[in-house]
Amino acid sequence: MARIGVDVGGTNTDIILETFSTDSVGAGTFRHKVPSTTQDQSIGVLKGVLAICDKAGIQRNEVSTIVHGTTVATNISIEHNGAEVGMLTTKGFRDILHIGRHKRPHNFSLHFDVPWQSNPLVKRRNRVPISERILPPSGEVEVPLDEEEVRQAVRKFKEAGIKSVIVGFLFSFLNKDHELRAKEIVLEEIPDAYVCCSCEVVDAMREYERFSTTAMNAYVGPKTSMYLNNLEHQLKENGIDADLRIIQSNGGLATVDSCCEKPVNILMSGPAGGVIGGNFFADLDAEKNIITVDIGGTSADISTLAEGDIKIMNPRDSYVAGHPVMVPMIDLITIGAGGGSIAYIDEAGGFQVGPRSAGSMPGPACYGRGGEEPTVTDANILLGRLDPDQMLGGDLKIDPSLSYKAIKEKIADPLGLSVKEAALGIIKIVNNNMALAIRSNSVARGVDPREFMLMPFGGAGPVHGPALAEEVNAKGVIAPPAPGITSAAGLLTTSLQYEVTRSYLCELTSIHGNQSEALQALLKDLDAEATNKLIKDGVEPSHIKLTRFAECRYHGQGFELRAEIPVGELSSGAIQQVIENFHRQHDIDYGYRYDDAEVELVTLRVVGESASKILEWKELAPADGNRLEEAFMYERETTFDAGQSLMTPRYDRNKLLRGHVITGPALIMQHDSTSLVPPGWSASVSRFGNLMISKSS
Fold first, then answer.
1. Is the pLDDT reported for residue 337 higher than 50?
2. If 174 and its partner were Cys, which of 75, 139, 300, 572 is the partner (CB 3.0–4.6 Å)?
3. Cα–Cα distance for residue pair 377/375, rounded to 1 Å
């Protein structure tokens, strides 16, 4: 039997296959890449899955599980091509999605865009007010739901051809009855409608964020569901009757049905696998403090992990395409910087790189697919940092003369530079862009990069690693064993996971008996809800692990931090532990704590997970008497950041063994990536095949 991880990037789709049995013909792990098919990601996914089965020598029916990281939902939100959405909301609150929080995206700019107004998820004409009202804090009904108003509104949606509908009423997290009844009416009138209630998508307080999250769910839902169902169908038609699992934004796995119901949970599906994969490979060699930099063809995803902890983003920071999305996401930032990032001269005569990308079609100029604009990959080719005859092991045909032509005509000649100077400029600009993003995810948050190793991966990662590490003063660089498929490998190291929430406001430091009983009852309900979701996916109850959190704040604060709730009954001692956990987390995040201040509970959250089989990665054999010369391939001229061009040896990474040390300058070649060791640096091969690259002492 085997399982497959598939991660779709902007340029390439990365695939890793792991077999379970040593008796299998294709025992071990196998890697593969195919160009991403942006018009329909499933085409590239299916092609890659079939190809890697053939490469591993296994039958298609031997694949038991496929874990998929996808950017389908992300792309819909960014490209603004989602469904036309209709909204039923409480009378008098039709414009909540337009008003937002009255925050300017850029406080001191006179020229700015307000995404929730310029690109609304629900147009105003499609937001229909309904007579109904729930009152806090008990959830009692003040104004009953006017069912006839709902029915008339839905009929107008039907006439307008709207089949994606959301229901967002005030205080539905206290009483769901009105929203659920409205949903029933929608389905009576439009049986094939895609309908979601705010209480089902995010059952928590803050009406603007709750409505925005629900609107995003309906906006990306129809197309995302069609993609996932089509992919599952195509796999089965080609003889692969495997369980298809999708990685969520929080790093956990979910079923296709769950993701079709709540696609808002997979908006950051693509980048999540990279963070988990980077953490997995670093942990093999006991490296706990790392900054992951996933540099693909289109973007760079950056995340800081302290003590091996993958941090979940604070809800106030969870935005996608400018819209607040109140679902758990791994704390990372994404910028438009990758191998396909296009270099150009802007209208003011400035030298820029990205965020626009050449993607996979036509791709960089050197691909010979019709691209005429210079990219980061073209610059690396011209500088000798990538060898044209070794790209993807020689499978990808490269024409360096096209790189030269594009850089000369578009950059060098207009700026009066030599082609080499222009190529170096492209690299320096894109590295500076990434370094700024790394600092914003580390230094700006009180993290000292000098205590962290930089882990660059993705096809374009390790060739930029040393320059980035030097720019941000990181300890050194870890190039994982398979940089180009690290994200795909991460998919095979995570667990099936669901999160459920319920808002409940009370002061923990002065909680009384009735509130304690209410909290205990809510936690019991949430435990059961999370457990039932996993059981529905076929998980045995004995394999389920529940972790409970209280999202708390100091009285008067606007947003919360997670504090873990101890296992067992919610006794007074357990509540004191929650308070202490909150104080500690506040000190970690902000550098101070108020031990005597009132701590307020806002939301309860339960995370249910079922551990999956973890990817097995074999240790390398020790070098012992094996000389480094056996891995030597050839020498070629390479230009480094200072502008010097040196004859630089190339080494075959597949022939490197544990304990080998390579002194720069050197390039370390493998099928899916190239690692750069500049002059004055050295690389040592670790026990599990990580390349530890650092400045020579």
1. yes
2. 139
3. 5
Q: What are the distances in angstroms from CA 12 to CA 132, 244, 297?
A: 50, 20, 7
- Tell how far CA 184 is from the center of its chain: 34
Tokens of 201: 């998508």
Confidence bin at 113 (pLDDT 50/70/90): confident
Q: Which residue has 């792309």 as its token pair?
A: 75
Torsion angle of C-alpha atoms 40, 491, 309, 482, degrees rounded to 10: -100
Tokens describing residue 680: 């004055």
How crowded is residue 632: how many other Cβ atoms within 10 Å of its Cβ?
15
Question: Pairing mode, if any, of strands 253-255 and 243-247?
Answer: antiparallel
* Residue found under tokens 């995040």: 589
Amino acid letter for position 282: A
More confident residue, 313 or 230: 230
Give the helix/strand (H/E) hosting 142.
strand 140-143
In angstroms, how far is the first alpha carbon of the chain from the final one? 47
Residue 246 CA: distances (Å) to CA of 39, 272, 438, 573: 20, 11, 27, 39
Mean pLDDT of 320-340: 88
Place of tokens 């791994």: 330
Q: What is the pTM assigned to this prediction?
A: 0.88
Q: Tokens 């390579």 belong to which residue?
A: 662
Q: What's the pLDDT score for residue 335? A: 86
CA distance 630 to 632: 6
234 band by pLDDT with thresholds 50, 70 and 90: very high
